[in-house]
Fold this sequence. Notes:
With 122 residues, the chain is mainly β. Helices cover 0% and strands 59% of the residues. It contains no helices and eleven strands. It has strands spanning 2-8, 10-12, 18-26, 28-39, 46-52, 58-59, 67-72, 77-82, 91-101, 109-112, 116-120. The strands form two sheets. Strands 2, 4, 5, 6, 9, 10 and 11 form a seven-stranded mixed sheet that branches. It has a four-stranded antiparallel sheet with strand order 1-3-8-7, with no helix packed on it. Strand 9 (91-101) and strand 10 form a beta hairpin. The termini are far apart. The mean pLDDT is 96.
Amino acid sequence: QVQLVESGGGLAQPGGSLRLSCAASGSIRSISAMGWYRQAPEKERELVASIPTGRSTNYADSVKGRFTLSRDYAKNAVYLQMSSLKPEDTAVYYCNAKVLSYYGGSDYRNYWGQGTQVTVSS
C-alpha cells in the first residue's frame, strides 16, 4: 500500500502565506509525478501544481507567481508554498502522487492524501 500524509493548511488572511507538506510512503517502486489539487465547495477538483519526475513544474494559471511547488526526491515529498493568498484560494487541498508500487502490476496509479483545509478570510 501507498500512503500520502499531508500537513499544513489552516486559516490565513488575504495577502498572507501558508505552506503545505506531503510525504509518500509504503511500497513505492517509482513516482512519476507529485503535486497538489484543490476542491472548493460545489466545484470540481482542479490541479494547483504538479512536478513530473525530472521535468519542470506545472501551475494553474490562477496561482502562477503566487504559489511555489518544490519536491524532495529523496524523501518522496512535495511542498507547496502559498503566498499572496486570496479568498478564492479557499478550498480543501489534496496531495497527489502517481505511483508504481511493488504490488500494483506495471501501471502507475493515482494516490491521494486525506485533504487539508485552507481558508483565506479576514
